[in-house]
Structure to design on (500 residues):
């Protein structure tokens, strides 16, 4: 089974069922299948096939899905590009992946024009782009191409955020992605009646897997929005689009948790569950959301190298606040010591993952691959523990650990305490050098609109909740904190500016 065959199978079983709903358009599975087949045939006519890479610089749209599925149908691997990157950053990825083609929207004409070296073929999905060929010019109507059947072949190369040095390309196979989608389908009890609301960037592993590939495997519908802004569009899609499955990042749930809708309105919604991922969900946000809404908010955990979903709190059964839940079906997780040995329940170590969702490796980087995957286990770089019930608790990133006089300080623990202050909107903690202590925590905080809070007041609040060595030595208030497109606070940027 490959991604292309999966789409073909769904389209043949449910040709008229809506696959994508976008800005008044409704694209059926038959239409998605025919469009992706035609694009695949066009790529083949350009000499693109197995072993090749096709980069996608596209906004959330049906064209993204067509280009992605068309690429894998041709046997090539898709390289979704972060649309927020600068031209030099895009240049690095295009060169590193050796992409033979770039599929772009005219919306990103300036970035494409600023590239140092374009791939051999540049295709534009909409409007005009100097030097680019409209995809309609290469699309071949008819039976398309022969089904690509190698499930062990690369389906996508997803570049990590590059928190240290240049980003690395995680190679995910057809088997990796379909196994992860199947695990999520069981975990979340997905059916063809579900309607997934997709507004996070489609280039992100979490968004595409859960809100596009998962619906395709179940014959469900994706309601696609260009972005989370304006937020009233998200609300309208929930209410009038009858969305049943809501996937978002903590920042969105923080916003929703402060809104209160009449109970009569909430009872009319079709939503059956909400899932939070891509960044840690503060306990305070979960508590407020749960108090205001009748449907469950499930925190999960994953990483690009795991296709990406590793675990989630169960839809039925016990959901533990502060935990990222239990492993999805077919996936094993354990906490290990420095030598890779499994630790007893409750002991903090590095989280390691094993299963059919674990990547093939990093593209062209054997050394990094060997460092990340040992004896079939993916070493995530995240520190955490597993309790006696098998629930996973992420403490922090291994590289974010702060050593104060040799004592471990986990930034997330400090951030959770800061978030509990009623005036705080966002918080991030990083380690900075200190002559006396080696390292000390520094907090970056943004306050809710109209709020006023001094560094002294916040420290006094934290001393009542944290050991003295965990209390930030410095607090810097900002209007807002820098974040990635998926809402993850860019701690590296903060640390550099703080001199860490």
């Amino acid at each position: 089974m490959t991604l292309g065959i999966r789409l073909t199978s769904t389209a043949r079983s449910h040709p008229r069922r809506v696959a994508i709903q976008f800005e008044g358009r409704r694209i059926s599975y038959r239409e998605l299948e025919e469009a992706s087949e035609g694009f695949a045939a066009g790529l083949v006519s350009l000499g693109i096939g197995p072993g090749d890479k096709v980069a996608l610089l596209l906004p959330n749209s049906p064209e993204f899905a067509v280009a992605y599925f068309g690429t894998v149908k041709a046997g090539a691997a898709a390289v979704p590009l972060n649309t927020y990157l600068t031209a030099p950053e895009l240049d690095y990825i295009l060169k590193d992946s050796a992409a033979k083609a770039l599929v772009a929207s005219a919306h990103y004409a300036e970035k494409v024009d600023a590239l140092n070296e374009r791939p051999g073929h540049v295709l534009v999905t909409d409007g005009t782009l100097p030097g680019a060929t409209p995809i309609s010019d290469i699309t071949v109507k008819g039976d398309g191409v022969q089904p690509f059947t190698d499930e062990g072949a690369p389906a996508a190369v997803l570049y990590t955020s590059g928190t240290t040095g240049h980003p690395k390309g995680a190679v995910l196979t057809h088997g990796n992605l379909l196994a992860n989608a199947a695990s999520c389908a069981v975990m979340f009890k997905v059916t063809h009646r579900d309607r997934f609301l997709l507004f996070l960037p489609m280039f992100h592993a979490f968004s595409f897997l859960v809100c596009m590939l998962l619906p395709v495997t179940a014959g469900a519908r994706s309601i696609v929005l260009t972005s989370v802004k304006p937020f009233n569009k998200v609300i309208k899609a929930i209410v009038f689009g009858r969305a049943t499955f809501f996937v978002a990042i903590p920042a969105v749930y923080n916003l929703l948790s402060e809104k209160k809708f009449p109970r009569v309105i909430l009872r009319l919604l079709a939503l059956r569950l909400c899932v939070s991922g891509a960044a840690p969900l503060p306990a305070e946000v979960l508590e407020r959301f749960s108090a205001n809404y009748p449907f469950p908010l499930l925190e999960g955990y994953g990483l690009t190298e795991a296709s990406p979903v590793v675990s989630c709190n169960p839809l039925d059964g016990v959901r533990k606040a502060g935990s990222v839940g239990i492993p999805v079906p077919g996936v094993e997780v354990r906490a290990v010591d420095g030598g890779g040995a499994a630790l007893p329940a409750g002991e903090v170590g590095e989280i390691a993952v094993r299963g059919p969702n674990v990547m093939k490796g990093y593209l062209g980087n054997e050394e990094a691959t060997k460092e990340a995957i040992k004896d079939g286990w993916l070493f995530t770089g995240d520190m955490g523990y597993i309790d006696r019930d098998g629930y996973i608790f992420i403490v922090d990133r291994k590289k974010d650990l702060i050593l104060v006089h040799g004592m471990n300080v986990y930034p997330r623990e400090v951030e959770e305490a800061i978030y509990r202050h009623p005036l705080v909107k966002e918080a991030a903690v990083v380690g900075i050098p200190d002559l006396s202590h080696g390292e000390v925590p520094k907090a970056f905080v943004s306050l809710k609109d109209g709020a006023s809070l001094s560094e002294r007041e916040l420290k006094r609040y934290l001393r009542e909740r944290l050991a003295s060595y965990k209390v930030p030595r410095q607090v810097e208030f900002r209007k807002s904190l820098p974040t990635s497109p998926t809402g993850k606070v860019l701690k590296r940027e903060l640390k550099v500016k703080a001199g860490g």
Q: What stands out?
A: The chain has 16 helices and 27 strands. The CA atoms of residues 259 and 377 lie 42 Å apart. The first strand starts at residue 18 and ends at 22.
